[in-house]
Amino acid sequence: MMDIRKLQKKLLKEEMKRSKQRSFFWRRGVPGLLLVLVLIFGGLLYSTNQLEETLEADFSLAAVAVGERDYQQALDYYEGIYRRNPSFHLAGQALFQGAEIKNLYQKRYPEALLDYLTLQQKYPDESALVRESQVRIAEIYKIRQRDYPRAAEEYRKALSLGVANPDQIQYEIADSYFRQEDYPQAVEAFAGLRRDYPQSPLLAEAGYRVATVYSLLGESEAAIQSFREVMERWPTSPYAIEARFGLAAVLEERDNFVEALSLLHSLQGEYPNAEALAKKTEMLELHMKKKQRR
């Protein structure tokens, strides 16, 4: 019986000892731990703020370097910003500006393409940059690499993103088909421009390009109608002048020499290439004389 009482007293003493230890921990240990955590968090916050201030300064220095045409220095700043902190609020812009330097000034087109694509993948919420990057991708394929089928595809992607100048993008799609000599698709795309963007300043040019395509396809009746439409709807446009020159060529092919020559004479003093006009007029007059002799 005594052994049990002794055991109970021993257990009670041990429990009281553990209780004091726990009490000491909660009175001293927990506040100390919290202090350590606060110091660590504060240090991280301070370090983050310092880094962001540095990156913001680098972004400003990059803009200065661009203004001074020191493009490599600017690129170093932009790439450093993205590399050091991809989550920085200007990192997407830095990536885009770096791609612009590679594209516009250094002719490093494959690298620029990769940066534009990386931006679209990493920063999908940067909608304005995503749209602009897509246009740049299409331009590289069309202008730099002359990959017109791919260019048309990339321009269509840009159009689907809601760009600010959809009529211009639609024009680029049509022009890409024209350059790959896919004339039926070009006509359809130019027609889409005229149908979907009736207020576009590109309508006269689109109409002229359609007439030119019909002429190349040998569809003279459609070409004549399209050239006349440009002349009538946009008489003050430079493309109305070009349409008169193009119409004269189609009429000559159909042996309508009188009207063709009249159109060429009406262009005297207006047509920008006076030498080409004089040569065309001379050739038409010779053609007329040969036909008359026959």
Would you kindly provide a brief summary of this structure?
The protein has about 290 residues and is mostly helical. The chain has 13 helices and no strands. The longest helix is centred in the first third of the chain and has 66 residues, at about 1-65.
What key phrases describe this protein's structure?
Serine Threonine Protein Phosphatase 5, Tetratricopeptide repeat; 82% helix; 294 residues; 13 helices; mainly alpha
Give an overview of the whole structure.
The protein is mostly helical and 294 residues long. It has a domain at 53-123: Serine Threonine Protein Phosphatase 5, Tetratricopeptide repeat. The protein is built from 13 helices and no strands. Helix 2 packs antiparallel against helix 3 (91-104) and helix 9 (203-216) packs antiparallel against helix 10 (220-233). The longest helix is centred in the N-terminal third of the chain and has 66 residues, at 2-67. The N and C termini lie far apart (147 Å).
Low-confidence stretches: 42-46
How many DSSP E strands?
0
Second CATH tier, the architecture of the domain at 53-123:
Alpha Horseshoe
What's the overall average pLDDT, rounded? 88
Structural class, by secondary structure, is mainly alpha
Annotate the secondary structure layout.
Layout: H1 2-67, H2 71-84, H3 91-104, H4 109-122, H5 127-144, H6 148-160, H7 166-179, H8 183-196, H9 203-216, H10 220-233, H11 238-253, H12 257-266, H13 274-293
